[in-house]
Known about the structure:
- This protein has 2 domains: about 1-205, Rossmann fold; about 210-265, no CATH class.
- Helices cover about 35% and strands about 30% of the residues.
- It contains 9 helices and 12 strands.
- Helix 5 (about 155-170) links the parallel strand 6 (about 140-145) and strand 7.
- The two termini are about 30 Å apart.
Amino acid sequence: MLKATGLVKRFHEVTALDGFCLDVAPGEIAGLVGHNGAGKTTFFEIASGLLSPESGNIAVKGQVGVAPQQLALYPSVTVRETLRFFGGLAGLRRAALKQAIDRVAEELLLTGELDRRVGILSGGQQRRTQAATALVADPAVLLLDEPTVGADPETRAALLAAVRRRAKNGATVVYATHYLPELAELGATIAVAKNGRVIARGTGEELLKGLPGEVRVTLDGDEELAVTTADPTATLAELLRGLDRPVRAIDIRQPSLDDLYKELSHVA
Ligand SMILES: Nc1ncnc2c1ncn2[C@@H]1O[C@H](COP(=O)(O)OP(=O)(O)OP(=O)(O)O)[C@@H](O)[C@H]1O
C-alpha cells in the first residue's frame, strides 16, 4: 500500500511537488505519466525515503524496491554480487538468496551475465540489472522510474511480465513511463502528473471516456470523409446510412492514452 497526501517539495525557486496526492492499493500497478519536470522522480525520491517533503504525508507499508531513473550500480562488481548485496539488504540469506537471484536473473534474461562485471555490460543489460535489484527480494512496494528506457523489445516484454507477476502476487507498484502502450500491457491504472500534482487519476477506460476519436471513410473516386466524434462506431453507422456511393475504405480511431496526454497538456 502507498498513500501520498499533499506532498510539497521545493528546490530553491522551483516547486517540484505542489500538493501531490497518490493512493495505490496492493496488487495495483499505477502508471505515473507526465511531461519532463512534472515531479515524478521527486515523488519517487520522497516515497523511497531519499528526500523529505516540506509538507504533506507519505505512508508506505512494507519493504520497498526502487529502480531509479539514473542507473545507480557499482561497475567493478559482478551482476551476481550486485544482486547478493541488494537481496542481502532486504534480509535474504543463503539458499533463499541464491534462489531469488537465479529466479530474477531468469525472469530478466540475465542468467548468462551473472558472473560478468556490471561495468562491461551493455546499456540495456545494466538497465535490466538495475530492475533486478528492485525485484530480487519481492518487496511489497515497487517504485520503478522509467525502467525500460533503452530496452530492446525482448527486454521490455520480460520486464513488464516480471512486474505484472509481482502485482498479481499482491505488490503495490508505481511505474513511471513516457511510453504509454506499456501501461495498457501492464493493465495499469493511470495517474497524470503536471506541475507537481496528479491532475487525473483512474483506469485508462475511465480517463478516455468522453475523449473524441475519429472516423474516416474513403469513397470511390478517393473522396474522404473525416469526422471527429465522441462515439466513432455510432457516427460510422450514421455516415454509412446516408451514403449513396460505394465505400473503398473505413478507418476508425478510438481515443488513445496519447490523446489524453495531449488533452491534459492544455489543462492548467
Ligand atoms: N536536486 C534538485 N535541485 C534542483 N531542482 C531539482 C532537483 N530535483 C528536481 N528538481 C526540479 O524539480 C522539477 C521536477 O523534476 P523531476 O525530476 O521530479 O521531474 P520528472 O517528472 O521526473 O521529469 P522527467 O520526465 O524529465 O524525468 C524540475 O523542474 C527539476 O529541475
